[in-house]
């Protein structure tokens, strides 16, 4: 079930608060047409534009594939979303670990949080507008349609093996990009992708849970 609101501060925070207080329980999706205080990864603020996708969902661990490494769950959910958009005609690709890109422009991202046995996933996606320096999805699709297709995909419990076999093929797209590690920007040019979704870089194994 997905509940839609005309306006929320943050779909992610709404779910977090509801799960902690016991007023909400998984499985559940929360969407809003306007978000005023969105949360991005690493504590950043995701700048919102009305008409874009602001969607959060929660599921229990037991409803996820048995072979899914929880530390790479952001990759799993992000790839499900990417695959949906791709089937609708988009050229979107997934930058490790959780960002949606068109060419060299970020158009959105996925973040995950674990509360007890619940996993909360939140996605922001520029469907129609974007801040300066960011991109917009290259197909026309309504927020409710994206959220419904994504929820259906999660319910199928597609295996990590299936998702990862496709994801690793396009990982080469990351080579000219960087990501933030311990407060600094680190190049992905020499990163080695591991079977659990982590990467080996500068003699460190880095996971994507965030």
Uncertain regions spanning at least 5 consecutive residues: 41-45
What is the name of the CATH architecture?
2-Layer Sandwich
Count of separate structural domains: 1
What is the CATH level 1 assignment?
A: Alpha Beta
Number of H/I helices: 4
Query: Any idea what the shape is?
Result: globular
Overall pLDDT: 90
Write the layout of secondary structure elements.
Layout: E1 2-5, H1 11-21, E2 28-32, E3 53-60, H2 73-87, E4 93-95, E5 99-102, E6 105-115, E7 118-125, H3 143-155, H4 160-167, E8 178-181, E9 184-187, E10 192-193, E11 199-201, E12 204-206
Parallel strand pairs: 1-2
Antiparallel strand pairs: 2-3, 3-7, 4-5, 5-6, 6-7, 8-9, 10-11, 11-12
Helix pairs in contact: 2-3
List keywords for this structure.
210 residues, alpha+beta, BirA Bifunctional Protein, domain 2, 7-stranded mixed β-sheet, 4 helices, 22% helix, 28% strand, globular
